[in-house]
Design brief:
- The complex is a heterotrimer of chains A (about 260), B (about 270) and C (about 350).
- With about 260 residues, chain A is mainly alpha-helical.
- Chain A has helices at about 1-30, 45-50, 55-85, 90-105, 105-120, 125-145, 150-165, 170-195, 200-205, 215-225, 230-260.
- In chain A, helix 4 crosses helix 6.
- Chain B has about 270 residues and is mainly alpha-helical.
- Chain C is of the alpha+beta class.
- Chain C contains 9 helices and 20 strands.
- In chain C, strands 6-7-8-3-9-10 form a 6-stranded mixed sheet, with helices on both faces. A 5-stranded antiparallel sheet of chain C has the order 13-12-11-14-20. In chain C, strands 15-19-16-17-18 form a 5-stranded antiparallel sheet, with no helix packed on it.
- In chain C, helix 3 (about 110-120) crosses helix 4 (about 135-150).
- Chains in contact: A-B, A-C.
Chain lengths: ~260, ~270, ~350
């Protein structure tokens, strides 16, 4: 009985989460532009999407900015974690407090603040300003993922390597870096997704004539929804599905291996 | 350790350029007139009727959405904890997946469903019922907020709930607690950190949004986010926009501090 | 035996807290030396200074006649078996053991042979391709040993290497360590807070507390002739009683004058207030009224081979700890007798630091 209620509840939540997305997917194959009448199967909204220079440009911008911002944030953030480890606790706490600001602040405030900064230093708003803004909000995520990996245990392993005759550089490369790697990887991935997903900060820090997927969707929706956006939704959804399945399967296989060998 | 303090230099520069100076410039514009003089009027402008109304409405809608999210998420987290699907990560996967879709597209989906010419009204018409005005209502905005932010409430609560040691619950039963007492005295108190971080992750974006209200409110319903956005993009009054942003920021910080009081772990689970 | 390591007046403090207050210590070639003391006594800091992980504020460290105080850790001819082992989690057992040799650019054939030899030595033959997290605590301990000894150090530093193991495994590993030490023929510097470990394995035990060396000597010397109440209490259970020398070689304990073997010659002149240590197994039980002291048994505990009893003195001021093979009942009145040579007379501690008995283990 209890189980049945639980299952029904899950089902309702799932329907709530997925019905709207499913609707978009179905409508993306609808021949007509109508949102309520099915007139036949067609792929021409996908055609329209792929022929849109604007959309292709936005996709390239979105992903190139995400990769660059995640890369820069990963390097700056990881170095910061190492640097802070050499500091006194008080200095470290001050830096961490500042580090938390962009994460706790509302995106709209961060976006506006960065926009005003670009105006004040007369930094022309465009690709580079978006990249700078994205890197700014990505660094905290990198620091939060990497920092827990650098702890007493890492110190001990580092000392063990020295004890065995390794130079400090060698010990860092062979022992400390592999220890930090999972944190660095998850920091990078987190940054990448945050950047791809961002709308509000991009909206305030972009200039005229440059779009990411988010800002393009926003301006198109304001004019009037075209079914090519449904096609875009379908593509994004399927991509996310595939990526997450691959990650999950790999994780499961890893877990099983661990369980078997333990 | 091999690390040197100077490794943090790029980070410190980035903090100064990306966080401190930008926030300082908001503060500068917020206390400045167009002519460059010092003023409190941009701050005090929050007390004007239309701004207070927008802030009040934002607060109301954000509170309602947060509450609904909490109401929906807690049972979900508990079911996930007990279900073997939850442990295998399948259900978690299903909850994370929508988060990976651009939230503008997710909001757009509700526009497609709710519009006068949209899916729901189409279905109503098909069975001969009159079309309803579903869009451009506060209800539509709440619906959009709940839809967009629900996973952000479920995940942190699930994270804390799944870490509760089963022995604690068994111990409560062993000591004679009823099921409801076990919930109120053991499970919910232990879940507080997750609830607090879930609330922060839903309440702040809901309070400050201008996108959801623009898309599902048809520009007719003004939230505080819309007012601020318009000051920057339409009216080009950065001074007023900055002043209102400052007040909103103080508002957020205050509500977060209030929230932190309930979380004895001091916000460790915020992310 | 020639001297291999010498510590000369080592002083070290962290954030204004004195950790080492002038340590002088000499370790001979091929000796098994144990630093024994409660946590916070400075034993780990001493080891880290020898290992090169800390620099002393004052004093010098000598190794084989050379001053190595400023030599970095990676250039010292000694290796450490760390507390909790510090095995590299992302490497296999074999890669862990190979690490030190790879750093020194040994040939792959040499490395292969050495790994095989070392694993055999620690009874883990054939485990080189396992992952670290597949190994049990005891196995990890052996791998840490293997990783250190393949580098042919002249001294092996062991920082509470058995601390994380359960009792049975710990006792097995004690024999194992003594065997390894014999086979390798190198110096062991061992750290522990476990007095049994220290007494079982060592050639020399160095008892530390509050950054001072309290006593050093063979296990027998430490056990039989502790120099102060701290050492006596730390090494095994003891009755530590207030006493006073009342005449030459006569000490008054609990109101009874009693002959002992220490006198003015040993530094205990009449009238001096002293600490008296009597081991619980040295107290014989005799019929009531026939011993030097009388008392009532107030509790009894059977611990394996013998009984442990608490006996309250007639005036209720003193509780004696006794160990005896015979069973007596709680409430029974008994007499107690001690041979004069089993009464240890000690000076009362002079300084605060010496008196602090922190058995926070």
């Amino acid at each position: 009985m209890k189980k049945t209620i639980g299952r029904i509840y899950i089902l309702i939540i799932m329907l709530f989460l997925y019905l709207p997305i499913l609707t978009l997917i179905v409508l993306s194959f609808n021949d007509a532009k109508s949102m309520s009448v099915w007139t036949g199967f067609s792929l021409h909204w996908y055609e329209e999407l792929f022929q849109s220079r604007l959309m292709m440009g936005a996709i390239v911008n979105t992903f190139s900015i995400a990769i660059l911002a995640a890369l820069i944030a990963t390097v700056v953030g990881t170095l910061a974690v190492l640097g802070m480890a050499a500091m006194k606790p008080r200095q470290e706490n001050v830096l961490m407090a500042f580090n938390n600001i962009p994460m706790l602040n509302a995106d709209i405030v961060t976006g506006i603040a960065l926009m005003l900064f670009f105006l004040m230093v007369s930094w022309p708003r465009g690709y580079m300003s978006i990249l700078f803004a994205h890197t700014t909000f990505c660094i905290p995520y990198v620091i939060l993922s990497v920092r827990p990996r650098l702890n007493k245990n890492t110190d001990r392993l580092f000392e063990a390597a020295l004890d065995l005759g390794a130079s400090e550089k060698y010990a860092f490369r062979k022992i400390v870096l592999p220890e930090l790697k999972p944190g660095i990887m998850s920091g990078f991935l987190l940054s990448f997704t945050m950047s791809v997903d961002d709308f509000i900060i991009t909206y305030f820090t972009r200039g005229a004539g440059i779009n990411t997927i988010s800002t393009l969707i926003y301006s198109e929706v304001k004019i009037g929804i075209r079914p090519s956006l449904f096609a875009l939704s379908t593509i994004i959804f399927v991509t996310a599905l595939v990526v997450l399945i691959i990650v999950n399967v790999r994780q499961n296989r890893l877990d099983k291996e661990m369980a078997r060998s333990a | 350790m091999v690390a040197k303090k100077r490794f943090a230099t790029p980070f410190i520069i980035w903090i100064i350029a990306g966080t401190i100076i930008p926030l300082a410039s908001i503060a500068y514009y917020g206390f400045t007139t167009r002519e460059g003089g010092f003023t409190f009027s941009n701050i005090m402008a929050m007390f004007q009727h239309e701004h207070m109304q927008a802030l009040g409405l934002s607060l109301l809608l954000a509170l309602i959405s947060t509450f609904i999210c909490l109401l929906l998420a807690f049972p979900m987290a508990m079911i996930l904890r007990e279900s073997k699907w939850g442990k295998q990560g399948f259900l978690i996967f299903v909850i994370i997946l929508p988060m990976w879709m651009n939230f503008l597209l997710r909001t757009m989906a509700w526009q497609v469903l709710l519009e006068r010419q949209g899916v729901i009204n189409g279905l109503l018409a098909a069975v001969g019922l009159p079309r309803q005005e579903l869009m451009n209502t506060p209800g539509a905005i709440v619906l959009g907020m709940v839809y967009d932010f629900l996973p952000f409430m479920i995940l942190p609560i699930y994270n804390t709930v799944s870490k509760i040691d089963n022995h604690l619950i068994e111990a409560a039963y062993d000591l004679g607690a009823s099921k409801s007492m076990t919930y109120t005295k053991v499970i919910i108190p232990l879940t507080v950190p997750g609830i607090v971080s879930g609330i922060t992750m839903v309440f702040i974006p809901a309070l400050t949004t201008f996108v959801i209200s623009n898309m599902l409110g048809g520009g007719k319903i003004n939230l505080i986010g819309n007012i601020i956005e318009q000051e920057f993009t339409v009216n080009s009054n950065w001074y007023l926009g900055s002043g209102l942003s400052l007040v909103m920021m103080v508002f957020i910080i205050a509500s977060m501090l209030l929230l932190q009081k309930f979380d004895k772990t001091g916000g460790q689970n915020l992310i | 035996m020639s001297e291999l390591i010498r510590l000369e007046h080592i002083v070290k403090s962290f954030d204004d807290t004195m950790v080492l207050n002038g340590i002088d210590l000499s370790i001979a070639e091929n000796e098994f030396v144990t630093l024994l003391g409660p946590s916070g006594c400075g034993k780990t800091t001493t080891l880290r200074i020898i290992g090169g992980f800390e620099k002393p504020d004052e004093g010098r460290v000598w190794f084989d006649g050379k001053d190595i105080t400023d030599l970095p850790a990676n250039q010292r001819h000694l290796n450490t078996v760390f507390q909790n082992y510090a095995l590299f989690p992302h490497m296999t057992v074999g890669e862990n053991i190979a690490f030190g040799m790879r750093v020194k650019h040994k040939s792959e054939q040499y490395i292969k042979d050495k790994i095989k030899y070392a694993l055999k030595l620690v009874n883990l033959d054939g485990f080189q391709n396992r992952r670290i997290d597949q190994m049990s605590g005891g196995q990890q301990q052996r791998i840490a040993m293997a990783r250190a000894i393949v580098n042919e150090p002249r001294v092996l530093l062991l920082d509470e290497p058995l601390g994380a193991l359960d009792l049975k495994l710990r006792q097995e590993m004690q024999y194992e360590l003594v065997r390894l030490k014999k086979e390798l023929g190198i110096t062991f510097l061992y750290i522990t807070h476990d007095q049994e470990e220290a007494l079982t394995m060592s050639d020399k035990v160095v008892v530390m507390n509050n950054g001072y060396i309290q006593q050093q000597g063979t296990p027998e010397e430490i056990y039989d002739e502790p120099v102060n109440a701290f050492v006596a209490d730390f090494i095994g259970d003891s009755n530590i009683l207030d006493g006073q020398m009342t005449a030459e070689k006569v000490v008054r304990i609990d109101g009874v004058d009693y002959p002992c073997i220490d006198g003015t010659e040993q530094g205990f002149p009449p009238r001096l207030m002293v600490d008296v240590v009597i081991r619980p197994e040295d107290i014989d039980i005799v019929p009531y009224g026939q011993g030097q002291w009388n008392g009532t048994i107030i509790s009894k505990l059977f611990i394996g081979v013998h009984y442990e009893m608490l006996v309250q003195s007639e005036d209720g001021k003193i509780e004696w700890l006794l160990q005896n093979y015979d069973q007596h009942d709680v409430g029974e009145k008994i007499g107690m007798k001690v041979d004069p040579e089993n009464i240890q007379i000690m000076h009362k501690p002079k300084s605060e630091a010496e008196s602090a008995i922190e058995l926070d283990i």
